[in-house]
Write a sequence for this structure.
C-alpha cells in the first residue's frame, strides 16, 4: 500500500485505537494477547519500582491491572490504585483482583489528563503501553507529576516507534491474533501501533519537560518497548 495514500486510513485506525468504545468492546481480547507477548515487561517495570515499602502507588492507564498485580505482590503493605478511561477495562481488572485475592488493589475509571487526586499524594507511579493513547501526553505526564510526592519514582514504558521490522516480526511470533493474517498484523503494528507512538528519545524528552529529573532510559530484552525511569 502506498504510504501517502494510506495516511487517511492510518489516521482513522489510530483514532479507533484510542477510542473508549473500542477498548470497552475489544479490550479483554487484546489484554489476553498482549499479556502473553510482554509479560516480562510487566515484571521489569514492577522491579524498577522495587520492594521499597511504598504506601501509595499509581498505575496510570491500568488496563486489566497486570502491572498493578505485580506491584501488589511485591509490596504487600502498599495500596495500588489503577486508573483507566474505559469502564470495560476497569471491570476486567476488578474481576481479576477478586480472582487473585489482592484487596490492596483499587481500580477506578478516570482520565489521566485530569487525575482525581490531591497534589503530592502518591509515592510512585507506573504506566505501561498507555501514553500513546492519551490525547495530550505532555499534559498527562504533568498530571502524574502533580500527584506524586517530591522524590517519588515514575516508571513509564511504551511501544518503541523506532523498532525495526525485524523486531516487529519477532514480536508477532508472541503476539498472534488468529483472525488477523501476519502480513496485515505487521502492517498495523508498523503503521498504527508502534508507528504512532514514541521513540525512546521523544519519551524521555516529554518526561523531562513535565518536570521530572534523574531520567534513565532502559531497554527491554526481546521486547520492542522502551522504559523511561525518573523521579520528581
Amino acid at each position: 500500500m502506498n504510504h501517502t495514500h494510506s495516511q487517511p486510513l492510518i489516521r482513522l485506525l489510530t483514532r479507533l485505537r484510542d477510542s473508549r468504545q473500542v477498548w470497552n468492546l475489544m479490550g479483554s481480547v487484546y489484554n489476553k494477547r498482549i499479556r502473553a507477548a510482554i509479560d516480562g515487561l510487566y515484571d521489569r517495570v514492577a522491579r524498577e519500582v522495587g520492594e521499597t515499602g511504598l504506601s501509595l502507588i499509581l498505575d496510570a492507564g491500568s488496563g486489566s491491572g497486570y502491572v498493578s498485580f505485580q506491584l501488589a505482590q511485591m509490596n504487600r503493605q502498599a495500596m495500588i490504585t489503577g486508573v483507566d478511561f474505559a469502564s470495560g477495562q476497569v471491570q476486567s481488572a476488578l474481576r481479576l483482583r477478586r480472582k487473585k485475592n489482592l484487596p490492596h488493589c483499587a481500580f477506578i475509571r478516570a482520565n489521566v489528563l485530569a487525575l482525581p487526586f490531591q497534589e503530592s499524594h502518591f509515592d510512585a507511579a507506573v504506566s505501561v503501553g498507555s501514553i500513546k493513547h492519551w490525547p495530550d501526553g505532555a499534559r498527562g505526564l504533568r498530571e502524574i507529576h502533580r500527584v506524586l510526592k517530591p522524590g517519588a519514582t515514575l516508571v513509564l514504558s511504551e511501544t518503541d516507534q523506532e523498532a525495526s521490522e525485524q523486531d516487529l516480526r519477532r514480536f508477532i511470533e508472541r503476539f498472534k491474533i488468529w483472525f488477523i493474517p501476519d502480513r496485515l498484523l505487521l502492517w498495523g503494528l508498523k503503521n498504527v501501533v508502534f508507528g504512532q507512538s514514541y521513540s525512546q528519545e521523544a519519551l524521555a524528552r516529554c518526561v523531562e519537560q513535565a518536570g521530572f529529573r534523574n531520567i534513565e532510559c532502559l531497554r527491554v530484552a526481546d521486547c520492542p518497548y522502551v522504559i523511561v525511569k525518573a523521579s520528581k
Notes: The mean pLDDT is 91. The helical segments are 3-17, 20-49, 66-74, 87-100, 137-147, 165-174, 182-193, 200-209.
